Amino acid sequence: MSFSSQPTDFTQYDTAAISETDRAHFLHPWQIFDAIAEEGALPIAAAEGAYIYDSDGNRYLDAVGGLWCTNIGLGREEMADAIAEQVRKMAYASPFVDMTNIPAATLAAKLAELAPGDLNHVALSCGGSTAIDTAYRLIHFYQNCRGKQNKKHIISRINSYHGSTYASMSIGGKPGDHPPEFDYIQDTIHHISCPNYYRAEAGLSEADFLEARLQELEDKILQVGPDKVAAFFAEPVFGAGGVIVPPQGYHRGTWEICQKYDVLYVSDEVVTAFGRLGHWFASKEVFDFQPDIICSAKGLTSGYQPLGATIYSSKIHNVISELGHGRCFTHGFTYSGHPVACAAALKNIEIMEREKLLPHVQDIGPYFQAQLKTLSDLPIVGDVRGIGLMACVEFVKDKASKERFDEEFDIGKWISNQADSRGLIVRPIVNLNVMSPPLIIDAEQVDFIVSTLRESILACVDDLKQQGHL
Fold it and tell me: Domains of the chain by range and CATH?
């Protein structure tokens, strides 16, 4: 692995000035206005491998992997070279109508090769949200081409996350992502329960829980009407919803129900694809089902360039591309198939293949999960769950009843602040700490994550006791 060895002079930065400039002008995704006003944001100035550095030169092991995306690690010299070479050769080319570029065409073919089954066609966009948005519009186009103008309803799950465009956020089902100040599509998008067995009714067996979740999907299709339900959107593993791995058989079962009622299955692999679970894609290899559409982004370029891909079946393509209708697919973006982003994706895939990162994840993933499980003995750790290099620690006030802390405590943030001070970045989501480290992580770094998180949780427990909350 070759990472940048160029040293960063952190004395050049004025952290207070950077923070003030940021506060005055940069509207962050998911910005909590009160918190930014009081505390500002942490300025990140440099990165190498699995580590990031703030503008004061403090080093952190980034166990979040950027935002589920820095799979091959940051600061790769050959990634910088590939991007620079493409910029010099051709920084941009219009993708519209009858023009293409070599990196885009090459990448589309590579994705068709890696994707399961007959997913042989690719629409390229700017990220995960636009990949989902493209799938949504593609579904409408497909159903209209079939003469099924009423078959437009979508089913998703509570606690799912599918992006932040108007359509993708409407498809998502996280209550915290649907504040009253925003509007959402509500008449044609429906949500069924989250398949989180940890939060199941006490005494309910996992088999009965699974049966109930499958029946709920079928009941929802029947309620809305099979002639109206167009597609089911599902993450193989919930990401921002808390790294929820559904019971074994859930995905196969939901897929069979979709097959029964002519409902397209959209697998949102924006997080799980490109090695996160040790495979190029998780749908078929890990969960044994063949989706009609896979949406991907993040690990596609390991965060080096913004790029999304909507990979769809020949079954869909054969319908929408049928000759003699004069059809035009009036959807896409100025930066669809951007040559620099596609060059980055191709180099990223090459690195993953050459360095055998998928087998590495299959080896290190079980160790990562097993070590994190050792945190289960701590008094406020209710659940430790995950698969591959996706993991979540859920904190509870009472382990027996699974009672949560009041949201005002923001217990996940409380613990992540402790971790920050010890050189570890984990992602707080209310009562959770979520992790998705770079795929290059080794056993020593796993040990650091787990021991540092343990220290951080214990420090938080001490604070809670001193303040009379435990």
Answer: 10-72+356-466 (3.90.1150.10), 79-354 (3.40.640.10)
